[in-house]
Amino acid sequence: MSEIISDAKPVGSTATSTADAAQKPTASRVAVASLVGTVIEYYDFAVYSTAAALVLGPAFFPSGNATASTLAAFLTVAVASVARPVGVVVFGTIGDRVGRKRALFLSLLLMGVSTVGIGLLPTYETAGILAPVLLVALRLLQGASMGGEWGGAVLLAAEHAPPGRRAVYASIPQAGPPIGFLLSSAVILPTLAFAGKDGFAEWAWRIPFLLSTALIVVGLWVRSRIAESPIFDEQPADDTAAPRFPLAILVKEYPGRLLLGMGAAIGGSSVYYLATVYALSYGPTSLGIPQSTILTVSSIGAAAEVIFIVPVAILADRIGRRPVIVAGAAGCALWAVPMFGSLQTRDTVLIAGAFAIGFVLFAMMFAPIAAFLPELFPARLRYTGASTSFILALTLGGSFAPIVATWLTSHWQSPLALGFYSGALCLVSLGCVLALPETRDKDFSV
After folding, report:
1. Residue 4: inside a domain, yes or no?
2. Where are the alpha helices (H) located in 120-205, listed in sequence order?
3. Is 237 a member of any domain?
4. 3-state secondary structure string, 3-60?
5. How many domains is the chain built from?
6. 57 to 75, 165, 417: CA distances (angstroms)
7. Which residue in 125, 218, 248, 423 has its CB near the most CB atoms, within 10 A?
8. Distance of CA 142 to CAs 79, 125, 126, 183, 276, Å?
9. 204 phi and psi angles, rounded to 5 deg
10. Residue 416 lies in a domain
């Protein structure tokens, strides 16, 4: 991947300068290190979301009603949203005052501790009410970690990027969520096949969580060896450059950009969560589609996204962020109904094709947003500003999507409801991007 991003040329450039050549190895290492950490964070998150869809309801929230148990499990997916703003405040403040690298290291450590802890939890049958209480507590820690991860990862990569290639380098960590999902599927599918549905529900669901230990150790080692952002290092060491509470300054000085930035990312968040979280439960329980089939088609979609992230980001560096995101938002708004409607056919090939197209359109929104959101804010507030916009979008558009979807499909017994819901949010994103300025040529040092 470092070869791909090193070969990308800025607009109007015919040769790489000596300074750029010296910067390439550092920039590429930082981008890949940001990707490694983000893959691990999203692997942990994807493992939990998949387990919530498949087994955590009966294991931690037993009831006589399967829908109620599943809904309770999805609430624990959403409960992390409560802690995400806390993570934004804590890690954003660390990132804007102490350094991007320090914040990223701590966020990954927190995610590792909480994920392995979930794998060791006793179930309701063993510990009673203590089991779901501990599960919710560890989910809150996961949420706080995620609140600090995204902004730091894309920002560190973007602030190391050579001129004219900011979207490309910032997009590398954006491959973390789909790769993390693919990695989780690569662990969960064989585990399901080996242990069987009953064995997975009884004990084997813990394996993906515990395997996270090795990944976390690797990720922490990689992140400990990267350089701090040169733009952060160039900022004056005073409270003017690094305000004590960056979020308060943002809300006061940039409320419009915070809200529009959130809106720009909200549609893509809903598409991704409905396809990779809610569909894993809805397909088997409501449509009779095997769990392995839903995991497979979601994985095919995620793989398509990974393939297109860097090419889309190269395009965003050439023609601008807004045209690419607008095209992706419009495409997702139009394709959301056919994409989720394909579930009605129960045809694996048709569903896989529909999901692959949907994820490619999603990549057109998701890849450029990594540069677009940080470029909306000044360097002294950039970690907190980008993180706040994205995490609010992820929370309102993503984490609550399975809950909203559960309610929608209980009233309208059709997956078309999922398409209309996510399509409407993509239209919101379209309007917000059109209301924001183009940022490709922004001076990133200020």
Report:
1. no
2. 124-127, 130-160, 166-171, 176-199
3. no
4. HHHHHCCCCCCCCCCHHHHHHHHHHHHHHHHHHHHHHHHHHHHHHHHHHHHHHHHHHH
5. 1
6. 10, 45, 24
7. 423
8. 10, 24, 23, 18, 18
9. -75, -15
10. yes
The domain in which residue 291 lies consists of 25-228+245-435
Cα(401)–Cα(325) distance, integer angstroms: 21
Residue 79: closest CA among 134, 39, 120, 119? 134
In the structure encoding, which two tokens stand for residue 215, read together? 């990944």
The span from the CA of 285 to the CA of 290, in Å, is 9
Predicted pLDDT of residue 337 = 96
Q: What residue has token string 């983000």?
A: 38
Contact assessment for residue 307 and residue 357, using Cβ atoms and an 8 Å cutoff: no
Residue type, 64: G
Type of residue found at 155: L
Is residue 239 a part of any domain in this protein? no
Distance CA 379, CA 375 (A): 9
Tell me the CATH number at 291. 1.20.1250.20
The structure tokens listed for 221 are 């080692």
| C-alpha gyration radius of the chain | 21
* H helix intervals, 342-436: 348-375, 382-393, 401-411, 416-435
Pairwise CA distance, residues 409 & 161, whole Å? 44
Secondary structure (DSSP) of 289-342: --HHHHHHHHHHHHHHHHHHHHHHHHHHHHH-HHHHHHHHHHHHHHHHHHHHHG
Q: Which amino acid is at 116?
A: V
All residues at 6 or more sequence positions from 437 whose CB lies less than 8 Å from its CB, including other chains: none
Q: Record the pTM.
A: 0.81
Token pair belonging to 372: 């677009």
